[in-house]
Please model this.
Amino acid sequence: MVLNTPGAHELIDNLVSYAMLPAGSRSIAIGCTGGRHRACGLVQITGQRIRELGRENTIEHMHAHLPRVLKTAAS
Model:
């Protein structure tokens, strides 16, 4: 499901490229405004790809424990 989100593959490719730069960021944060926790999936996939390229990383999910935000019709 996460990889079927429009732009997901491009985002992961860009984040992996950025992380692999010699002076690349040492922290990358991904948020999810829709409340469906797609960010957790993106982080896991991105972290795995970075590890496959030989760079160790640590993943920390800050808000995965929060409930999914459900959209309601306007009253």
User: Anything to note?
Assistant: The first helix runs from residue 8 to 20.
